[in-house]
Write a structure and sequence with these properties.
This protein is an alpha/beta fold. The chain is 35% helix and 28% strand. It is built from six helices and eight strands; from the N terminus they run H-H-H-E-H-E-H-E-E-E-H-E-E-E. A hairpin with a 5-residue loop joins strand 7 and strand 8. Helix 1 packs across helix 2. The N and C termini lie far apart (85 Å).
Length: 203
Amino acid sequence: MASKKSKKAKHYSAGTKQGRQKLMRTSGKKAGPSKPKSTTRKTAKSSTRRTTRQERGAKSKLPRMDNVLIVVDDLEAVKAFFIELGLTLEGETTVEGPLVGGLIGLKDVRATLAMLRPPDGHGGIELDKFHTPNAIRFGPVDAPVNALGLRRVMFAVHDIDEVVARMRAHGAELIGEMQYGDAYRLAYLRGPEGIIVGLAEEL
């Protein structure tokens, strides 16, 4: 059974500064401030956990851009243009019904969709041909690059001269080309239905 003195010492050790001083006098040692515990490792771990959570949150909110939609009239011509450019047809289907209409805000929807992907599989072009309701065109087919709205899609290429020559042979119009410093060579092409694509070759 512990003595009263030992119980008192135990009480002081967990008490105030005055209690610690009494405890030190009892044990014959000088009272002094207790050494603070190092928090460096704990802080580093907390910081790592916060960073990891932030990274996971950012990835879960927007993991990637999946595709860009282009509504077309001549689906076969536009599809052939992008395939010649180097994209691969991933799939083609027809969608219709109230669920589709509710998603896009139209009634009596029936449309054919074609999804194309570049070689690396990142991003893509979705081509939609509306059977009902009829597609609506605003402005001329060959609208200039400064017309409001989505005007072009840019692709990275390895040999811009070869791609430009091949696409022109396929019927594309070369709008213009330039060299951007020592970094890139650039070109703009207009394809079927006025679609503009940009090409960029890294130097």
